[in-house]
Each structure stands twice: as C-alpha cells, then as structure tokens.
Amino acid sequence: MKLYIKYMVSLRCKMVVKDELKNLGLHYTTVELGVVDIMENITLEKREKLKTALLGSGLELMDDKRAVLIEKIKIVITEMIHYSDELPKVNFSEYISQTMGYDYTYLANIFSEVKGITIEHYIIAHKIEKVKELLLYDELNLTEISYKMNYSSVSHLSTQFKKVTGLTPTFFKNLKDKKRNNLDDV
Fold first, then answer.
1. Is 35 helix (H, G, I), strand (E, B) or coil?
2. Which end of the chain is flanked by fewer CB atoms within 10 Å, N or C?
3. CATH code of residue 25
4. What digits encode the pLDDT tens for the residues 161-184?
C-alpha cells in the first residue's frame, strides 16, 4: 500500500517518517521522497495516528488525488535538480512527462491551477536555490555552475538569478549573511 506525504523533501524527512512508521508498528519496503510503500493495509486508527504524528513534524499525509499528483511533480523536480549529479539533457517538460507517465500539458494545467505558478517557474526557483548552494560551496566558478545547471551562458544564469533574487550571483557570493530558502518554501 502506498502512502503519499507532502513536504517530504530531504533525508531528514525520510528519517522522521521511518521513525513514525516504526513507532506505529508499520513495516515498509521503501521510503522515498513523498511516497512510502508499506507492507500491510493500514487501519483507519493507525492512519489518523500517523497523520497526527507527521503533522507534528511539519509533514502531511495526503488523500486528495490532485494533491498527490502535484506532490509527485514537485518530487520529480526536487530530485532532478537537487539530488542528481547531472540535469537531464532533454527538455524538463519531456523529462517530467516521461517520468510521471502523463501528458505534460495535463500536468502543467493541474500544477498551475493548484499551486498558482507554472511548472517552469517552480523549476527556475529550484535551479536558483541549487545555484545558491553551489555558490556557497565555492568549489565551482560561475561558468562551471552555469554549465552544470544547463544554462546557455553565464549571462543567462546571471539574468535569471537577479530576476529571482534581486542580486547578482557575485553579489550574493560576497554577502556575509547568505540566505538560502528551505526546499519546502521554494
């Protein structure tokens, strides 16, 4: 049985979910970002206990099919940008469509309707957060970062970075109090 969990975007979240499942005596085969595969059917009582426990940790057990689909889209994007070594070489729309097994237009319409922003803007926000992370690590120069993040040029990256943050990448890098957003807040 699959359970879908909203705001589950990090390894810490996975650990919290595993602990809560263990506390309730539920056995799982996999715990991935946003989805848990449990081995048994869950009683209504245990489901409510899990829901309450997850809420206490800032996570949310989901029931609505549209919310589940939106969360899956967000997970695909988060994993694609933050947890893979390399961004896909195909268009993001094609990648998301292939990964999800749905027509991209259908996914984009639902996402925009529910979230109030387009998938493209959501991807840009995540790419900028990844760029911030790479700037903070100070291991790659701007040219290498733009290449790694599939920008056509440093200029394109800089323009998009400034549009989203109001700062140039260089100015951000030199800030004493560098602020990154939580992935949940992007």
1. strand
2. N
3. 3.30.70
4. 999 999 999 899 888 666 666 666
